[in-house]
Every structure is written in C-alpha cells, then in structure tokens.
Prior knowledge:
mainly alpha; Hypothetical protein af1432; 10 helices
Amino acid sequence: MPADLSRYDAVWRAAEPYMRARKNDVHIPLSFAWCVKLLDHFPEADRDVCLLAILLHDIGWWAIDMDEILEQGFRSGNILQSDVRYRHEAEGVRLGTEVLQQTGWSDAIIAQVCEIIDGHDTRPEPRHLNDRIVRDSDKLWRYEVTGTAVGCDWFGETPVQNCDRNEKVLPKFETEPGRAMAEAELARTRALLLAHLL
C-alpha cells in the first residue's frame, strides 16, 4: 500500500508561492515523486526529513531574478559554485524554516531539513544517507521527458544534447538505486524523443 503523503499537504500549500520560479512548480513535484520511490530502497532513512527537504530544497530560487539564475546558475563558468547557487541555498533555509514553523514541524526536524537544503548543490560531499537520497532525488527528475524539456530551456540545448549532458551526470549519483533509476529513465526518454535519429 502506498504511503500516506497527506501529512505534507500543508507544507505544499505554504511553499507553493515560492515554487513559481525557475520551473520549480514542475521540478519539485517530480523530484518529490522520485524521492518517494527512492525511499522504498532505504527503510532506515528518515522519510519526513527526506520528503520535506526535497519539497523545500529549491524554493530559495524565488528570491533571485530569473535572468541572473540562467546566466550565472546554468550557462557560465563553474555553475555549481556560482554565487546564485549559494544564495538560493541560503534563501531556501530562510523560507523553508518559515514554512516548516508555520506548519507545525518540530525544531529537530527543521534543523535536519535545513542542514540538507544548505549545501544541497554546492557541498562537495553528502553528510549522511538522508542527504544522499535528497541529492539523487533532485537529479532524477531531469531524466524524464519533462525534465529534459526544461533542461533544454535552462541550458540552451537540444533534447539530444541535454540527454548527453544527463548521461555525464550518472557517475555523480550517490546511491545505486538512484543511478539505476536514472539510467532506465534516460533510455526511455531517448527512445521517446527519437534521440537515436536526431
């Protein structure tokens, strides 16, 4: 029987206004669904921490201008170490704390969720299993057709180029189940987009 996810409904509603940046209203729900699947492989992980962290991890982009996001965060230099990456993490901690406090989560949960948000893109190595699961969930959505379409806009690429970019990310997955899911989804996306012909 699928897990009851209604315990997160209030968080979704409180965070939704902050998802209207950088296609996060698409990215976050898809990443959340991947996190649910990935958690099935790791019963020892903290479901609340992982699911709240993936739900809130990118809401900090709301506080940054979209042109700045695309230029600094996706199209120039070392994008993972750009100023906007650090800023969106800091803003994510600030907004995530507000959302979780408003929706009644404990200080202990808030601290664990915010520890993951703060550094989810820029920290070189994950700190623990929950962090690893969130990092993989954050990447998995991009292997779907929808994620590829969004990625084409962000990076100014064709679908074939974006699929090739995503293939290069496969070694960076933190968990074997995450990598296997990404490989399977990439193959499906390439087939649907006729990448072997174009």
